Amino acid sequence: MAKKASTKSAGSEAKAPPIRFTATLKKPKVPDGDKPDPTSWSFLVLSQAASAKLPSRGMVSVRGLLNHASFEATLQPDGGGGHWLKVERKLREAAGVTFGDTVSVELAPVAPGEEPEPVLPPDLRRALSSAPGPAGAEARAAWKDITPAARRDWIQWITSPKRAETRVLRIEKACDMLAGGKRRPCCFDRSGMYDKSLSCPVADDDAGAARPSRS
User: Fold this and answer.
1) Boundaries of every domain in the chain
2) Sheet holding 19-24, edge to edge
3) Within 10 A of 78 (CB to CB), how many other CB atoms are there?
């Protein structure tokens, strides 16, 4: 008897299984002189095993669950080959957790065509909108034409330097390169592993210190 032909289409291959791990929800340390904000954002660091399953050592946009509360976010590189996740107050409350809690996380990278639109920094927005002449028009047209992932790369390249002067120069260069047909910045360290430009937030060790042990 002849074998029945497979009806599975080429584009219907099973997706990779979600990445699951547990982590401690941490409160970022408040710089000296700043007033602590008890309702501020929090963060968690992915386990080494979880980060290793991601497709990039740089930023990765994901969808997932935090204690059964759904979220969409972009994981940030920690400069050491790993990643961390910023947890806003709204997600923290939806998940029913607070600083110092151990949370369960399930996430998966979004498909290439589902990359979320990154937040455009005000200084880059002003530079693009005010760039003069035909070159300015070409830069704005290029920015509109490139993908959200490419726009995210430009924004990371511009915002990663620690010196304000470097950021200003990179905004000027970005406008020039976009006008010249460059669709993505090249030759920069998206992971922060080599130029040491990126790192995970510093945790406030006192946050949750008075909470009872759950062991």
Assistant:
1) 19-112, 122-179
2) 19-24, 102-109, 60-66, 69-77, 83-87, 42-45
3) 20
Q: What span, in angstroms and rounded, lies between the C-alpha atoms of 45 and 79? A: 12
Q: Of 64, 100, 70, 73, which is closest to residue 214 (Cα–Cα)? A: 100
Dump pLDDT digits (tens) for 76-107.
999 999 999 999 999 999 999 999 999 999 99
179 phi/psi in degrees, rounded to 5: -65, -30
State how far the alpha carbon of 158 is from the alpha carbons of 108, 162, 184, in Å: 27, 10, 12
Domain 19-112 has CATH 3.30.2130.10: no
Report the mean per-residue pLDDT for the chain: 87
Q: How far apart are CA 149 and CA 146, in angstroms?
A: 8
For 136-166, write each residue's pLDDT tens digit.
Answer: 999 999 999 999 999 999 999 999 888 999 9
How far is 97 from 91, CA to CA, in rounded Å? 9
Please give the distance of CA 194 from its chain centroid, rounded to a whole number.
18
Q: Which of 66, 158, 64 is nearest to 74 (CA)?
A: 64
Its pTM stands at 0.79
